[in-house]
Write a structure and sequence with these properties.
This protein is 35% helix and 23% strand. The protein is an alpha+beta fold.
Amino acid sequence: MPKGSEGKVVVIAKKIHRILYGIFVSSYLLPTAFVLSIPAFSGSELIAKDKMIKPVTLDESSPKEVLRSKIFQGTKSVRLCQQMSREKDKPWVPDDSALSALIEKISSALKSEDAKSLVPLFHKRLKISENAVKTEFRALVSIVGAPFDVSVFRLWALNSPDGSAKAISCAKDELSVYPLYGYPLQFAIWLQVQGQSELARIFIALVPDESGKWVIGAYKTNQWTHHGKDYSAWIDEARKKIKADAKFGMYVDLDIASKLLLPQGFLDFDFLKTVRGAREEVLTTEYFERQIKETLQEQTKDLPVVYISTLLVPSGSGILLRMKTTKELPAGELRKRCESLAKTLFVKPWAESLSGLRCSLVFPSEKPDQEGVLGGLLISRTEISENK
C-alpha cells in the first residue's frame, strides 16, 4: 500500500461499511444466482406517455375518492405514499375487492406466462398487443430463467391531490415513486420474480379508467441481481478489496452496484447517491477512464476509444469499450483486435477482477453512449486463458 494512503483507505472502508450495513441494505438483501451477457442495464417497459392516458376527474362521492379518504384520512391534500400490508389470506385492499382481484389476476397471468389473460388488464388507450406482452415475457425469461415464481414485494397507495407526475417519497422504503399524470389516487405494485438463474422486479402502476375500473397504466421490468449478487452483495465485494487497496476493482464493484439501482423510470432510490459518492471517493470516473485509455492507447490509435463503462458479463463484471470508426470491420478482424485489447488489459494487476471485455464500434455520426449499428462482441477472460 502506498505510503500515506492508510488514512484515506480507512475513511473509504468506513463509508462502504456504513453503506453495506445501513437500514436500506439490510431490508433489501436478496441473494440469488445469475448468468447473462448484456452491454447495458437490463429492463423493458410497456407504458403510455403522460398524455396518452386521459386524466380522470372524480367527484367526492365516487368510490375512488371514498377509498382515498379511507387510506389517507386527514391528509388528502398532501402528496403521500402509503405502504399497504395485508394479513395472511386476506385481500390487499379490503375496501376495494376489484383492486385486490386485479392484483391476483396480474400475478397469476405472469406466473403462467399467459399473455392472452394479461392484455385485457391494460388500459385500452395503451393499445397493448398480445405480441408485445409475449415479447415482454421473453425478455423476463432471458433475465431470470424459466420457470419462475411471482410474488408481491410491495404495494403502495399514492396520493397525488393535483394529479401531478412529480415523485412522491416512500420514506419507509427509502425511495421515491413517480405516479402517472392525472390521477389523485393510484396504486403501484412492485413484483418480485424469482427464476432459476436470477431475480427481477416488475413495477406496475394501477389507475382507474374512464369507467372507474382499475387497469394497468404502466409496466416495467428491471434486473435486480447479477451473477448471484444484488447491489448490496456487490458493495460487499468492494469492501473485501479495501485491505489490498484494490481501488480499480472497488470502483468496478461499486459501479455495478449503482447500475442495479439506476433510476428505473418510476422508482428513484435514495441510496443511489450514497453508492455513487463512495465510488467517486475510491476512484474518480475520470481517472478510471483515463487509466484504461492510456493502457490501450497504442492499440487504439486508428480506432479511438470514445466511451468506457463497466459491464455486466456472464461470469461477473467487465468493461465496455466503444471505438470510433469510419468503416465496417469484418467480424474476424474485430474479434482479433478485441482479443488483443483484452490480453493487454487482463494482465494488469489492477484489472484482475475483470471477467470480460466488450468491443463495440460506432460511426462518427452516432452517439458514443449508445450502441451503434455495427454492434460489437464480448471476449471473456476464459477465452483468453484458453488461447494462450
